[in-house]
Amino acid sequence: MAYKATSETGEFGLIERIKSIVQPTLESAPELVLGIGDDCAVWQPSTELLQVSSTDLLVEQVHFDLLTTPAKHLGSKAISVNASDICAMNAIPRYALVSIAVPPSMPVEMVEELYRGMESAAREYGIAIAGGDTSRSRSGLVISVTVTGEVPEKMIAYRNGAKEGDIVCVTGTLGGSAAGLRVLTREKLIMMEHIENNETYNRNLMADLQEYTGAIQQHLLPLARLDTVRFLHERQVTPSSMIDISDGLGQDLGHICNASAVGALLQENRIPVNSTARLIADELQDDALGWAISGGEDYQLLFTISKEEHKKIADNRDIAVIGEITPKESGLLLKDIYGITIDLTSLPGFDHFK
Amino acid sequence: MAYKATSETGEFGLIERIKSIVQPTLESAPELVLGIGDDCAVWQPSTELLQVSSTDLLVEQVHFDLLTTPAKHLGSKAISVNASDICAMNAIPRYALVSIAVPPSMPVEMVEELYRGMESAAREYGIAIAGGDTSRSRSGLVISVTVTGEVPEKMIAYRNGAKEGDIVCVTGTLGGSAAGLRVLTREKLIMMEHIENNETYNRNLMADLQEYTGAIQQHLLPLARLDTVRFLHERQVTPSSMIDISDGLGQDLGHICNASAVGALLQENRIPVNSTARLIADELQDDALGWAISGGEDYQLLFTISKEEHKKIADNRDIAVIGEITPKESGLLLKDIYGITIDLTSLPGFDHFK
Fold first, then answer.
1. Nearest to B276 by CA among B257, B291, B265, B262
2. Of A40, A52, A62, the CB nearest to B135
3. In degrees, to the nearest 5, what angle opens at C-alpha A98 toward C-alphas B75 and A36?
4. How far, in Å, CA of B97 to CA of B116, rounded?
5. CB contact under 8 A, A353 and B12
6. How far apart are CA B168 and CA A145, in angstroms?
7. What are phi and psi of B295, to 5 degrees?
């Protein structure tokens, strides 16, 4: 297999390769009238359903590092984080538009791997990759994904519906993504040191990362919780509010509380901390609970629900009850294992732009 | 007014500023259930209408140069180029999602200007800016816009419907954008020279650009031809195929001919070359017709239509008849003013990725 830079294939050559890779995702979309190949993607909206749409921009060196992120994983994650936003409305993701800006020196094979990852994730969720844009970049790789989904009006879950007395629930485990990132960053530093000392870096050293898989996978290949949304639809349960955890449990709960004009009280011992994150925290003498609360990027669903509605889903062991909604004046609190109450907003990680 | 970098406002501070700027665009959208502020934008699709969606990624130093492009114009153009894709389907643009990646040093004022330009263009087209994403960039500014529109199924215009004997039409004038870019690039080189020689650059020198306005405006502030789409709807005329001119008349006609499996014969003397472009071409000893055919970025609509249907719109002086559709075997030809036939695909500008 010869190395070929994207600058050699030309834009239309690249689009043809991309089209053939994402083609299988179209099979799940009978309402898609037209995919890639015209000025727009075209679909027939389902009768009586709302359209919900979300977009994310992923920038090299800000959101990802190609030294520690395989292109295929990156493609999968780009689809998953947007699908997760759709799930956070209790909606079903349907169509994706994908744009990339590619440095001219980037190998075509790498761009293809990126799209293979997208195709694989899209097929997993039943999303049709229906269009997009390709262009050059003068610096790093940029990926922009927009996903549109559908949901019946009476089942949509906004951020602003949490009510005093509601239960706070979260899916899966938390802190895995932050822990995985710590391990990958450490590996990268070791690798850079080898390179600086002109030593050969042995990729096989990474074999002993095996025990960290539960965290690294959560960071590199997070999954949108479409399974939870399907479960909620099956049980005909609509959360009073919902969000996906991208900024961190504390900050995302803050978004719900702000929008709903309520407070919340979480119980530390109920927070489902990722077990691999605990292992890594012990090794690095860091704090797994801190990662669970402020780490972000776990893409679990955080939702509130009335006590009566919760009975209908209480048998799901993958949904943890972690606290309850309180009056606004009480603020955003965490009761720790010693019974001491901490103000969640005083913790770090409450603004990731700076 | 004090200088403030985006790194000082934080992500949520910036989002609040952006929300207040784009707020007025929401008034035109009664079907928009929810704009910025949740995980997704939410809208109620109009009954019986298809949804059409298009996305574009604009990268600093590839698609624009902040030395020659005012931020407000750039914002307007980012909306217009996507609205133009929607118009190219004979559809009405409705909702936009906008993402930006901002270098931390960029002044907040500049980001606000960018959104003021978007707001102004969006309001012009009746588009609601309903959501998006903000993030840091490690290098230049990146803008990603996705616009969704609506159109009745029987009025949609694809690229693949052109038929032998159809008339080829184009709106407005061509070559203005390429000519405007040439003038701006020349000004930039003069400016750079002044800076290199440590001379003070006098911005007032740019005052004599007045006579080039017709071309510079076409480059910096192109308008999507929504007026033409509304006219076609009023007259109940559906083009057999349509595209907007982003790559250049020759290349975009090539897209229609490829998709429709037909050829085309254009008449040079019918091509509406922008008059300011002619003026600039004379000065720079360049070729205005070349810019009209291969320059691109004019965002006019190029469409084919049957002779009978054309009668219904023949009174529109802003729509020029420039040729006709021929059998596929005839290829893509231009008859020049001397009656000599040239192969359009032999001209430069048929792949802009390299």
1. B291
2. A62
3. 105
4. 15
5. yes
6. 35
7. -70, -45
Nearest-CA neighbor of A40 among B353, B83, B226, B125?
Answer: B83
Q: Are B140 and A142 inside 8 Å of each other by CB?
A: no
Q: What digits encode the pLDDT tens for the residues A17-56?
A: 899 999 889 987 888 888 887 889 898 888 889 999 999 9
The number of residues making up chain A comes to: 354
Mutation site, A46, A51, A143, interface B, largest B CB count within 10 A? A51
User: What is the rounded (10 degree) CA torsion for A297, A301, A302, A304?
Assistant: 170
Distance separating alpha carbons of residues B146 and B55, to the nearest angstrom: 4
Residue of A12, A16, A53 to mutate for B, most B C-beta atoms under 10 A: A53
3-class DSSP state of B20: helix
Task: List domains and CATH numbers for chain B.
Answer: 11-154 (3.30.1330.10), 167-180+216-346 (3.90.650.10)
Q: Please give, rounded to a whole number of angstroms, the shortest distance from the CA of B213 to a CA of chain A.
A: 29
Binding site membership of B for Mg(2+): which residues?
Answer: 39, 54-56, 85, 133, 244, 247
DSSP letter, residue A45:
P
**Which residue shows structure tokens 């215009």?**
B157
CA distance A129 to A148: 11
Per-residue pLDDT of chain B (354 residues; tens, 9 = 90+): 456 777 777 767 888 889 999 989 998 788 888 888 788 989 888 888 999 999 999 999 898 988 888 999 999 999 999 999 999 999 999 999 999 999 988 999 999 999 999 999 999 999 999 999 898 898 899 999 999 999 999 999 999 999 999 999 999 999 999 999 998 888 888 878 877 777 765 655 554 678 888 898 888 889 999 999 999 999 999 999 999 999 999 999 999 999 999 999 999 999 999 999 999 999 999 999 999 999 889 999 999 999 999 999 999 999 999 999 999 999 999 999 999 999 988 876 554 333
B-interface mutation test, from A153, A225, A240, A353, most B Cβ less than 10 A away? A353
Rounded to two decimals, the ipTM of the complex is: 0.86
User: How many angstroms separate the CA atoms of A177 and A282, rounded?
Assistant: 16
Distance CA A211, CA A353 (A): 32
Contacts of A187 (CB under 8 A, 6+ apart): A68, A206, A209
Radius of gyration for chain A, computed over Cα atoms and rounded to the nearest angstrom: 21
- Is residue A31 a known part of a binding site? no
Distance from CA of A155 to the nearest CA of B (A): 13
Determine if residue B127 is left, alpha or beta; phi over 0 gives left, psi from -120 to 50 gives alpha, anything else beta.
beta
CA atoms B192, B194, B200, B201: torsion sign: negative
Q: A206 to chain B nearest CA, in Å?
A: 28
* Inter-chain residue contact B142 with A85, CB threshold 8 Å: no
* Secondary structure letter of residue B163 according to DSSP: -
E strand segments, chain A: 32-34, 41-43, 49-59, 92-102, 128-136, 142-152, 167-171, 241-244, 263-267, 301-305, 319-326, 332-335, 341-343
A255 carries a ligand binding annotation = no
**Please, are residues B234 and B313 in contact by the beta-carbon 8 Å criterion?**
no
